[in-house]
TrEMBL record:
GO terms under cellular component: membrane
Residue ranges of every copy of the NodB homology domain listed in the record: 51-227
GO biological process: one example: carbohydrate metabolic process
Source taxonomy: Bacteria, Bacillati, Bacillota, Negativicutes, Selenomonadales
Annotated GO MF terms: hydrolase activity, acting on carbon-nitrogen (but not peptide) bonds
The organism's place on the tree of life at top rank: Bacteria
Name of the protein in question: Polysaccharide deacetylase family protein
Pfam families, sorted: Polysacc_deac_1
Length: 233
């Protein structure tokens, strides 16, 4: 009888401890599920109901080509979105001021160009925030869009951006201009995939600048407007 009571008491203790362990794990489990199991997606295109497209130019290098790029854009009365890297901004404040002074949208491309998928949420937030701070210090512009380096993203990266108020941006058309293909290849890559709301990824390279005049003219000739990314979302 005594042994039976002891066994019953032990079972109750084990059950109580199990319940406590389960309850204590709930917040972690919920957080893990929210951050890692929901299939969150970035933005790959703008509003598809209107005939508008946008260029997004990622800048961590290539400053020698930016003045000419700005001339081409200004001569066609076109404004685009420049995704600026924080360390680049720190080294090239006058160039960044010039971009902003021409009326182009300034957006966020991280501070040091890490691989976002290798970082936890807090490190991703730190990268975004540091870039935002240095860009704001130079231009007095608060960035509103975030394009992660290497086009990397997962739920952790998206959550980090969202917690800082940023939609995470991808692209519809990749010019792959960082490989420096001939200007005609860049133009054809864009025109083959042009559609309402298309987001066109490019970088400041020599063939990109050479391709831009004809590319812009062909896009406009097909009835599209070219606007900053924020304006077509």
């Amino acid at each position: 009888m005594i042994i039976s009571l002891r066994i019953s008491k032990i079972k109750k203790i084990v059950l109580a401890l199990s319940v406590l362990f389960f309850l204590s794990a709930l917040p972690f489990s919920h957080k893990f599920l929210v951050e890692n199991s929901s299939n969150k997606e970035p933005i790959f295109h703008g509003d598809t109901t209107k005939q508008r497209v946008a260029f997004g130019c990622n800048v961590f290098w290539g400053e020698e080509y930016i003045p000419k790029m700005l001339e081409v854009l200004e001569s066609h009365n076109v404004h685009i979105t420049f995704f600026i890297g924080g360390t680049w901004a720190k080294k090239n404040p006058d160039m960044l001021k010039l971009i902003a002074s021409k009326g182009h949208e300034i957006a966020n491309h991280s501070y040091s160009h890490p691989h976002p998928n290798n970082l936890n949420k807090e490190k991703n937030k730190e990268e975004i925030q540091k870039a935002e701070d240095i860009i704001n210090e130079i231009t007095q512009v608060k960035t509103k869009l975030y394009a992660p380096p290497y086009g990397e993203y997962n739920n952790t990266v998206i959550n980090a951006a969202e917690e800082l108020g940023y939609p995470l941006m991808m692209w519809t058309v990749d010019t792959v201009d960082w490989k420096r293909p001939p200007p005609s290849v860049i133009k054809n890559r864009v025109m083959k995939k042009l559609s309402n709301g298309a987001l066109i990824l490019m970088h400041p390279t020599e063939p990109t600048v050479q391709a831009l005049p004809e590319l812009i003219e062909e896009i406009l000739a097909q009835g599209y407007n070219i606007e900053p990314i924020s304006d077509i979302l």
